[in-house]
Design a protein that fits this description.
Blueprint lengths: L1 H10 L5 E2 L10 H8 L3 E2 L3 H7 L8 H8 L3 H9 L5 E2 H8 L3 H13 L3 E5 L2 E4 L1
Parallel strand pairs: 1-2
Antiparallel strand pairs: 3-5, 4-5
C-alpha cells in the first residue's frame, strides 16, 4: 500500500523521501526501486528538513533553545561535549539525582539540544 501511495505522489510531482534498505533484503526491494526511480535518499531527519529548505535544526533554533535553559539544564548542557557521557556521571557533576538529571536530559533532547547516544549516554547535537 505504501509503495502505491509513494508512486502516486511521484506522479503528482511531490517529493518522495525514502530510507534505503539492504540490497540483500527482499523486503527492501520496493524502497530501493523508489530510490532508483528518483526518490530522495534519507539518512536522518535533517536530510528532509534540508531538502525542504527548512534548515538542519542546528542553527538559530538550537541557539534560541539554549536561551531557555534553567540553571540545572545549563549545568548539564555545559558538562556535555562531542564525547558521549553517562547520565550518572553528568548527574554527579551537576549535583543532581539521577532521576532529576534524566528528566532534564529528556527535556533538552526534546528541545533538540542533546542526543541520547544509547544506554543513557548523551552528547551535544
Amino acid at each position: 500500500m505504501a509503495l502505491i501511495t509513494a508512486s502516486f505522489a511521484g506522479d503528482q510531482g511531490r517529493e518522495v523521501f525514502v530510507l534505503p534498505g539492504s540490497i540483500f533484503a527482499q523486503t527492501a526491494e520496493g524502497t530501493n526501486a523508489l530510490l532508483r526511480d528518483g526518490a530522495r535518499l534519507v539518512r536522518h531527519g535533517a536530510d528532509i528538513l534540508e531538502d525542504l529548505g527548512l534548515g538542519a535544526g542546528k542553527g538559530p533554533v538550537a541557539t534560541q533553545s539554549q536561551l531557555l535553559l534553567d540553571e540545572n539544564e545549563r549545568t548539564l548542557y555545559d558538562a556535555l561535549g562531542k564525547e558521549a557521557r553517562h547520565i550518572d556521571e553528568l548527574a554527579e557533576e551537576a549535583g543532581l539525582s539521577a532521576g532529576a538529571a534524566s528528566a532534564l536530559m529528556l527535556t533538552m533532547e526534546l528541545k533538540g539540544l542533546v542526543r541520547n547516544h544509547g544506554a543513557q549516554y548523551y552528547v551535544l547535537r
